[in-house]
Design brief:
Elements: H1 17-46, H2 77-83, H3 106-124, H4 128-147, H5 158-172, H6 179-186
Helix pairs in contact: 1-3, 1-5, 3-4, 4-5
Amino acid sequence: MTTTTSPASPSTEGVAEPAVKGMWAWTALRLLLGWSFLWAFLDKMFGLGFSTCRSPDSSAIDFVCSGAMVKGGSPTFGFLTFATEASHTGFLFDWMAPSAPDAINFADVLFMGALLGLGIALMAGVFTRLAGIGGAALMLFMFLAASVFPENNPVNDSHIVEMVVLLGIAWVGAGPFSLHAVLHKRQ
């Protein structure tokens, strides 16, 4: 008795069928988180009016205002100055805080590099394991700086959820819908 099997595609060879079917969810999460990091970089760099350069009183947008990094604004000043005030561990990160909203320091450059690198890597599907682990570390530090014993939930907040998702992405890899898969398919 002979059985006929169809040849496995290169991207799914050796992978259990349920894992292949579930890869769409990991791919969607990878793209969504990648866009979140990339958008945060773009908004903080150029002041596009979502969390940067929006008037708190009128919600008016002042594109490329003095808060944009290209105009000398610090992308970490607000978070490290105000979001860490009520934290039980925020004092551990005080040394990173810029002295003023227009004082760019090493933490600003490092943070913006991390946002850009994570955004591009996750969106393109390259270096996803490194990006997943690096992004999880960033989320852990942001949780420790601001959210230990969060206001709305005593156990969990979005930084922890994102950290777990990023570790999941690091575990499963980029998947078939990525630049990584396209490059390896040609070899």
